[in-house]
C-alpha cells in the first residue's frame, strides 16, 4: 500500500508587518452582502502547504472550504455533515453519505471518494494525530461507507469530525502531495495559495448547504500580533484572529470578543534525557512555577490559572478532578536547563522570560531558545529541549480530550514533547479511549489527567481565551472556542 509523503512546498516568505498596509487593497467592494469579500488576518502561516493531514487542516475548516463526515455541537456530540446518519456494529461503523454534494472541481461526492480520502489519511506517514493508536480502514458499501477499527472504538464519529479527516476530491491526492485547491465541498472554494503569504477563496455556488452570503474570502497570514491588531484598527481587515492580550485593551472593546477556550498553556518537561529525567527535579520545577503571576503580568488577567490540563471550557473537568500525589521536590543545585518556545503566539516569549526568572530563583540556570514555530517544532518533537512551552488545544481534533491526552502523553503518541513513556499513564489512556461516551468516559479522562500530572511531565500554567477582533461591519462571524469555524456560509460584510 502506498504511504504518501504529504508536504506541499512552501515558496513565499511570511509577510512582514511593514508590508501589511494595503495588503487587502485590491479586494472588497461596495454595497451589501453581495459586494464585499471578507478580509481575514490570520496568525500562523501554513506549515505544510495547507495539507489537510496536518494542523493546516484547521485553516481549511475555518475558511469553510473543506468539510468532514461529521460535525460537533457545543457539547462535543456528533452531528450530521457529509454523512447524514451512522450506526455501530461491533468494530465497524456504517455512515450514510449525503446525496447531491459536489466537490469544487465538479465531481460528485460518492462513497468511493470518501473511502479514498480516509484511506489516504489512515496510510499517511505520519498519520493525522487524531488517528494516534487507531488502526482504521474504510470501504464502500452501496450508498454507505463502512469504517472499521482494530478494536471497538466508541469515538469513531467524533474522530471523523476532525478537520484532518476532511473529504477532498480525488485530484487532491495526485503525486506526493495533498493539494486542497479546488478540491473541497464547502461554501467557499480555495482558488489560490500564495505560499505563506496569502490565500484566496471564492464562493462556490453549487454548495449543498445553500449559497454563501459573502462572495469570497481574502486571507493574509500575519504572524506579528501588533500588525494584526493594527489591521483591525485601520480598517484593512474585517476579521482578526488571535488578538494578543497586549493589543486587546487598545482596541474598541465593542470589536473584541473573548471566549474561554479548550486551550492550555503548558510547560512540557523532557522525561527521557537531561535534568528533568529526574522526577525530583521535575517536581522542583513545578513548585517553582507561579502561574497566577503569569496570568496577571503577561495575560493582563485575560486567561484562567490552570488547575489541571483541562480548563473551564470543559466545566465537568473541575467537578471530577481530585487531588494528585506528586513526587517530593529535589534540589536543582544550579543545573542548567534550556527552555524552548515560539514567537507565533505573542505572549509565549514573555511567558518564557517569566518562567526563566522563576526557575532561576528556585536554583536552576535557565537558557531560552525562541524561534518561529515552523523552525522549532521538529526539535521540540525530537526532545531536543529540556523543557518546552506550548499553547495546546485540548479538544481540537475530536471534541474529546482523550485524543489529546493520548497524542501528547502516551508512549507512542505523535506529539509527545515530554518524551513520556510510563506504563501506568498508558494504561489509563487506553482505558479512557475505550470507554463509551458519557459520564463514565469523563471520569476515565480525569483519571488519565491525574496519572499524567503525577509524573510532572507537564506543568499546566493557564487556560487561554479566544480573543477575536471583528469590524463593526461584520455580520455573523463565528466565535468558536475549538477554532474550527471562523467564516461561515452566513458571514458577510455590510
Explain what this protein looks like in three dimensions:
Helix content is 26%, strand content 22%. It is an alpha+beta fold and 494 residues long. It has two domains: 17-238 and 471-493, Periplasmic binding protein-like II (D-Maltodextrin-Binding Protein, domain 2), CATH 3.40.190.10; 260-465, Dipeptide-binding Protein, domain 3. Strands 1, 8, 9, 10, 11, 12, 13, 14, 15, 16 and 17 form an eleven-stranded mixed sheet that branches. It has a four-stranded antiparallel sheet with strand order 4-5-7-6, with helices on one face. A hairpin with a 5-residue loop joins strand 2 and strand 3. The longest helix has 17 residues, at 439-455.
Entry summary:
The chain is built from 14 helices and 19 strands. It is of the alpha+beta class.
Q: Which helices and strands occur, and which strands form pairs?
A:
Elements: H1 32-35, E1 38-42, H2 57-62, E2 70-72, E3 78-80, E4 83-89, E5 92-97, H3 111-122, E6 136-141, E7 144-149, H4 156-159, E8 188-194, E9 198-203, E10 216-221, H5 225-234, E11 239-240, H6 245-248, E12 256-269, H7 279-288, H8 291-297, E13 304-305, H9 315-320, E14 336-342, H10 347-362, E15 365-371, H11 373-381, E16 387-393, H12 401-409, H13 423-434, H14 439-455, E17 458-470, E18 474-475, E19 492-493
Parallel strand pairs: 1-10, 1-11, 14-15, 14-16
Antiparallel strand pairs: 2-3, 4-5, 5-7, 6-7, 8-9, 9-10, 11-17, 12-16, 12-17, 13-17, 18-19
Helix pairs in contact: 12-13, 12-14, 13-14
Amino acid at each position: 500500500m502506498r504511504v504518501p509523503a504529504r508536504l506541499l512546498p512552501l515558496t513565499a516568505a511570511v509577510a512582514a508587518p511593514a508590508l501589511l498596509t494595503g495588503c487587502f487593497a485590491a479586494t472588497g467592494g461596495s454595497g451589501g452582502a453581495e459586494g464585499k469579500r471578507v478580509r481575514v488576518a490570520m496568525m500562523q502561516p501554513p506549515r505544510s502547504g495547507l495539507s489537510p493531514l496536518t494542523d493546516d487542516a484547521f485553516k481549511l475548516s475555518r475558511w469553510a472550504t473543506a468539510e468532514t463526515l461529521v460535525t460537533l455541537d457545543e457539547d462535543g456530540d456528533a452531528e450530521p455533515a457529509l454523512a447524514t446518519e451512522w450506526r455501530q456494529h461491533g468494530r465497524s461503523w456504517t455512515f450514510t453519505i449525503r446525496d447531491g454534494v459536489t466537490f469544487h472541481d465538479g465531481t460528485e461526492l460518492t462513497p468511493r471518494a470518501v473511502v479514498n480520502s480516509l484511506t489516504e489519511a489512515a496510510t499517511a506517514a505520519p498519520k493525522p494525530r487524531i488517528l494516534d493508536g487507531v488502526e482504521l480502514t474504510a470501504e464502500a458499501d452501496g450508498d454507505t461507507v463502512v469504517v472499521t477499527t482494530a478494536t471497538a472504538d466508541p469515538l469513531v464519529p467524533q474522530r471523523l469530525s476532525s478537520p484532518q479527516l476532511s473529504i477532498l476530491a480525488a485530484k487532491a491526492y495526485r503525486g506526493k502531495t495533498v493539494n486542497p485547491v479546488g478540491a473541497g465541498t464547502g461554501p467557499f472554494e480555495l482558488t489560490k495559495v500564495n505560499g505563506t503569504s496569502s490565500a484566496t477563496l471564492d464562493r462556490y455556488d453549487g454548495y449543498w448547504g445553500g449559497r454563501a452570503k459573502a462572495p469570497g474570502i481574502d486571507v493574509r497570514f500575519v504572524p506579528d500580533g501588533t500588525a494584526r491588531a493594527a489591521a483591525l484598527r485601520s480598517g484593512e481587515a474585517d476579521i482578526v484572529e488571535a488578538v494578543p492580550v497586549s493589543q486587546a485593551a487598545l482596541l474598541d472593546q465593542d470589536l473584541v470578543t473573548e471566549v474561554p477556550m479548550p486551550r492550555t498553556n503548558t510547560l512540557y518537561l523532557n522525561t527521557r534525557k537531561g535534568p528533568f529525567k529526574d522526577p525530583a527535579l521535575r517536581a522542583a520545577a513545578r513548585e517553582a512555577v507561579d502561574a497566577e503571576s503569569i496570568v496577571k503580568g503577561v495575560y493582563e488577567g485575560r486567561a484562567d490559572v490552570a488547575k489541571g490540563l483541562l480548563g473551564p471550557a470543559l466545566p465537568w473537568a473541575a467537578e471530577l478532578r481530585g487531588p494528585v500525589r506528586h513526587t517530593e521536590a529535589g534540589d536543582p543545585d544550579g543545573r542548567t536547563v534550556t527552555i524552548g518556545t515560539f514567537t507565533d503566539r505573542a505572549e509565549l516569549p514573555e511567558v518564557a522570560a517569566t518562567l526563566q526568572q522563576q526557575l532561576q530563583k528556585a536554583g536552576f540556570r535557565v537558557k531560552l531558545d525562541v524561534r518561529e514555530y515552523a523552525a522549532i517544532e521538529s526539535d521540540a518533537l525530537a526532545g531536543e529541549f529540556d523543557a518546552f512551552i506550548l499553547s495546546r488545544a485540548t479538544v481540537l481534533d475530536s471534541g474529546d480530550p482523550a485524543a489529546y491526552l493520548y497524542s501528547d502523553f502516551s508512549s507512542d503518541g505523535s506529539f509527545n514533547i515530554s518524551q513520556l513513556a510510563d506504563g501506568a499513564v498508558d494504561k489509563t489512556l487506553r482505558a479512557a479511549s475505550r470507554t463509551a461516551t458519557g459520564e463514565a468516559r469523563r471520569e476515565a479522562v480525569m483519571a488519565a489527567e491525574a496519572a499524567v500530572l503525577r509524573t510532572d511531565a507537564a506543568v499546566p500554567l493557564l487556560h487561554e481565551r479566544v480573543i477575536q477582533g471583528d469590524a463593526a461591519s461584520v455580520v455573523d462571524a463565528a466565535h468558536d472556542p475549538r477554532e474550527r469555524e471562523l467564516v461561515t456560509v452566513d458571514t458577510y460584510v455590510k
